[in-house]
Structure formats: C-alpha cells, structure tokens
Amino acid sequence: MRTALTIAGSDSGAGAGIQADLKTFAAHGVYGTSAITAVTAQNSLGVTMVEALPADLVTAQIEAVVSDFGVHAAKTGMLANAAIVEAVAAAVRDLEIPLLVVDPVMIAKSGDRLLDDEALGAMKMELIGQAYLVTPNIPEAEALTGLTIRGGDDVRRAAEKILTMGPRAVLIKGGHLAGDAVDILWDGVSWSEFAAPRVDTRHTHGTGCTYSAAIVAHLALGCDLATALGKAKRFIHAAILSNPGLGSGSGPVNHWAEFSE
User: Fold this and answer.
1) In whole angstroms, how far apart are CA 26 and each of 3, 15, 81, 190, 255?
2) Is residue 251 flagged as an active site residue?
3) What CA dihedral angle connects 194, 200, 201 and 204, to 10 degrees?
4) Looking at 75, 109, 124, 173, which residue is catalytic?
5) How far apart are the first and last CA of the chain?
6) pTM for this one?
7) How many CB atoms lie within 10 A of CB 51?
8) Has 70 been annotated as catalytic?
9) Has 206 been annotated as catalytic?
10) Is 173 a catalytic residue?
11) 78/22 Cα distance (integer angstroms)
12) For residues 213 and 232, what is the distance between their CA atoms, to the nearest angstrom?
C-alpha cells in the first residue's frame, strides 16, 4: 500500500491540519502517517490556544513512522516556530524523504497567525529548497517574497522569486484574487494554470491543507506533477461545493466529496 506523511499541526475542529490531511489521504486510498508539530484549540470561528511541541519530539515522530512504514510522498503544514522548521528540514534531508510538498501555512482562515517571523526565515533558508513543490496562497506568497500581488503578472513574478529558493516547482493558489480560482504553476521551464469556478460559500476552512494533501496523495500513487495537480484541483473544488455546512464561521469542506457520490 502507498504511504504518505503529513507534518503539521492538530486542528481540534478537524477541518484543517493533521486531521484534514489524514482524511484526504484515506479518501484517496493512501495510508497516512503523521508527525504533529503543534496542538491548537480551534473551531470554525477561530483559534483560541496554540501549544507547539518540542522540536525533538517532532523529529522522533518523523523518524518513527518513516523507519517502519516508509513514505512515498510527504507534506508540511503548520510548523509554528524556527526550531521545528529546522528540525523538519534536517529530518527531510537525513531521511531522504521524497516528493515533499511544502504548504507554507502562516495564517488561519480566521486570521490568526500560525507562524512567527523567525520561522518564516528558517523556512525560506532551510526547508523550501528541499521541496518538490511549494503551494503558497497569495498572502503567503507575498510574505515569502516581499512582493505585492494584485494580478496574474504579480503572481508570475512571485513564483519566479520563490523558485530561486530552490524548490522543483511553485504553485501559487489564486483563491484570494478576483474571478475564478486560478492556480499558477512554474517549474522553471513552463507555466501551467489550474482553474475552477469560484464557489460562493463561507465554508472554506482547511482548503489549503486539503488541496496539498490531495496533491501528495496523487504523488504517492505515482502520478506526475501535472496529473496530480489536475486531479487535486478537481477534488478540492468538489469538496468545497459539497461542504457539510458545519460551524457558525468558516466551516470545513467535505473530504470525501468525490468518493461518496
């Protein structure tokens, strides 16, 4: 059976983070393993408490699952602080973890900050260069590059700048821009776009986590990058469309949308 690893925070509301990733892996028939970086108390209305785990405990979790179950593809999500970012970067390198997707989680859907400035610097210097794919949204791409993004030309400039940090490819998600949700991929050779109609809903909590987890699942199953992105884009669009309507704020999506019809 194919395996995928998520290195991320725990979301008590289960719409994002470790819980969303594991549900998404399972929906794709991939065995999911995890290394928890932080515990959050949150729901659709916001984050009320965050407790980061010791960096050596994060490392121990990664080593435990990789040494026994193996890993065909992996992702990072919320990494909380610089010590954890550095520990994860070292583990990825030392354990030769393949097909790493870095989802640079910085801000929760509610607006709560999930990554400090020192950790952002460590991510740019030590982790992104080991990524097969980096998947920032517009605010995250702005934080990584220092650029202001208002349209497609800005997105391309930001993607080019992020690629100089060393990843194999960059996918900047366009959900924060007007119009259809168009994600732009740059691999240093060619540009590709992955589009879906915008869905008018407040239930979008965990879309970034779920999308990147779907990408990882398809990579673990052996898809090439373009195929994985196309399939993951269809999956997240269906997940938003069929959201379960839970919560009083930004509720979760349906992690089994494509597979429960």
Assistant:
1) 10, 15, 28, 32, 9
2) no
3) 20
4) 173
5) 24
6) 0.96
7) 11
8) no
9) yes
10) yes
11) 15
12) 8
